[in-house]
Amino acid sequence: MMRAAIRSANASENRAVGANQINTRGPAIRTDGLAVSELTVKFGGLAAISDVTLSLCVGEIVGLIGPNGAGKTTLVNVLTGFQKPSSGEVTLNGHETRKWGASRFRREGVARTFQSGRLFGKLSVLENAEVSAIAMGASRDKARKQAVELLEWVGLREVLQRPAESLAYTDQRRLDIARALCSDAKYVLLDEPAAGMSDTECDDLMHLIRAMPRKFDCAVLLIEHNMHVVMGLSDRLHVLDGGRTIVEGVPAEVQAHEAFLRAYLGAEIVE
Question: Domain 2-270 adopts which CATH fold?
Answer without folding.
Answer: Rossmann fold (3.40.50)
